[in-house]
Known about the structure:
This protein has two helices and three strands. By secondary structure, the chain is an alpha+beta fold. It starts with 16 loop residues before the first strand and ends in a 6-residue tail after the last helix. It has a three-stranded antiparallel beta sheet with strand order 1-2-3. It has helices at 53-66, 77-87; strands at residues 17-25, 30-38, 41-49. Helices cover 27% and strands 29% of the residues.
Amino acid sequence: MEGLxxxxxxxxxxxxxxxxxxxxxxxxxxxxxxxxxxxxxEDFELEFEAADWDEGKRAFEQLLKQFGIPERITKNxxxxxxxxxxxxxxxxx
Length: 93
């Protein structure tokens, strides 16, 4: 790291974030389920990828409805990690 001009004394370890991912092809696109673990917390994120945005949105909304999953706007997993770190004791060196 020193070769990159980074002083290792200025690095602070915050923790580990790991994600297990499952993917399933459907008729309308790719269903993705992420299971993330970090700082004594676990969460899940369901995504849907499709070639056509409007068709994919309809298929995803139907999938959520089928399984009684509420649609939510969520922060990305790195933002959730840092928020959890702040809750557990801040990010000071």
